[in-house]
Design brief:
The protein has one domain. About 30% of the residues lie in helices and about 25% in strands. It is globular.
């Protein structure tokens, strides 16, 4: 009998993929090695998936009126908001996710800790990245953590337990 591990989407940079805007990664062995004992990890970088290259110009969350848009930092006429939201919705429809691990402070993956800019380019607060925000809106009960919340084997075990508990109760 084969046991199917729960599927967890993980920001690709945390698994060692050099997909960040600067062409680097944020490899985190605790996530890549420890979490993979309990879950099947699916690397995902929304920014690469929508066609932004590596390396690439930074994108940022920008408050425009009452809404938040994702614009290129160096050229605010380039708006990738709709691409990110569209990709995010398609992604969660296609993947039977049991959980998500996201990179902190990212304009796509950050969860209430990504910098929010004014139209003038000044930091005015913090917000969630569009990928993270879309997942939370579409799947409010899905276990989601930031990389900064998985700092020990115990943290990873507790997250894995939440995932398994949720899948048993469904």
């Amino acid at each position: 009998m084969t046991i199917k591990l729960p599927l967890v989407a993980v920001s690709a940079c945390l698994l060692g993929h050099a997909v960040r805007y600067d062409g680097k990664d944020k490899y985190t062995s605790l996530i890549a090695k420890e979490l993979s004992k309990y879950c099947c990890l699916l690397a995902i970088c929304p920014e690469v998936e929508i066609g932004l290259g590596v390396p690439r110009e930074k994108i940022q969350l920008t408050q425009l009126g009452r809404g938040i848009r994702v614009l290129k930092a160096a050229d605010s006429t380039v708006d990738v908001t709709d691409l990110l939201v569209g990709f995010s919705i398609q992604f969660i429809k296609q993947q039977p996710l049991s959980g998500v691990v996201l990179q902190d402070k990212s304009p796509s993956c950050g969860l209430e800790n990504a910098k929010l800019f004014s139209e003038a380019g000044e930091i005015i607060g913090l917000a969630s990245g569009l990928f993270a925000q879309t997942i939370k809106r579409q799947l409010p009960d899905l276990p989601i953590v930031l990389a900064s919340q998985l700092q020990s084997k115990q943290d990873v075990l507790e997250f894995a337990h939440r995932i398994v508990e949720r899948s048993v109760n469904e």
